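Exercise 3.2. Students should predict the tertiary structure of the chain below and write it as structure tokens, then compare their answer with the key that follows.

Predict this chain's 3D structure.
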Amino acid sequence: MDSLHISAALSVGAVEFLTYEKPEKSIFRTKSIQVISIVPESN
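Answer key:
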């Protein structure tokens, strides 16, 4: 599903992709768009 979301973002010209996924997830391996995690940091 992540690849579909990235493809959709690219198709509309997005330059950043915000996600609730943790930075360790595979979605962060893409080089075609900057992926930004909005998961709150643990204390």
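Discussion points: The chain has a mean pLDDT of 92. Residues 9 and 33 are 9 Å apart (CA to CA).
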